[in-house]
Amino acid sequence: MRKHNLTPMQSLVTRQTKGNNHLNQLQTIFKFLQSHVATASMVSAETGIPQKCITRYKRDLEKAGRLWEVTRTNCKLTGFRAWYLTTDPEKAPNSSSQLSLF
Fold first, then answer.
1. Interval 23-46: pLDDT, tens
2. Which CATH number is associated with domain 21-99?
3. The whole model's pTM is what?
């Protein structure tokens, strides 16, 4: 069995396809959510990255422990209930209650 000695961010980068489009989009989303708490629709409107791609990057960043869902409420852009997201660890919700379950 082959071991991978990559940090979470490096493993996300190695998943990129042809060119740097994947990396550029991932970095754009990550940096935007460092300074904003927003829904995927709001991120899409601000960055121009399709929402379908944002959803995929959201999953990747969550698995890497770099993105958190802050609160679920109505989106300011669409009016539908959605998760507000952040990549800022200081804005991340306290996860100690979930850790105590295990």
1. 899 999 999 999 999 999 999 999
2. 1.10.10.10
3. 0.72
